[in-house]
Amino acid sequence: MAAMQKLSAREKEVYELLCKGLLDREISEALQISLETTKKHNKNIYLKLGARNRTEAVLLRSSVEE
Which pLDDT score, from 0 to 100, does residue 3 have? Predict the structure, then answer.
């Protein structure tokens, strides 16, 4: 997926955890970053993937893996 290549290394880390179902707070703790930074990464991920929200972003990954 070309859009996945647009993600930075950190965004890919956040995206992996997001796809595993972790909450923003849990992602922040796992990566030792602030909650606001996690939310900013999420916003950038959605923009780069063309997703409107978390659900669409996860579904995009699912459709690529099939």
Answer: 73
Query: What is the predicted pLDDT for the residue at 66?
Result: 46
Residue 41 to residue 39: CA distance in whole angstroms? 5
Domains and CATH numbers, the chain: 2-65 (1.10.10.10)
Helix (H) or strand (E) holding 32: none
What are the φ and ψ backbone dihedral angles of 34, each rounded to 5 degrees? -75, 160
pTM reported for the whole predicted model: 0.88
Kindly tell me the number of DSSP H helices and DSSP E strands found in the chain: 5, 0
Rounded Cα gap, residues 61 and 66, in angstroms: 9
pLDDT of residue 65: 56
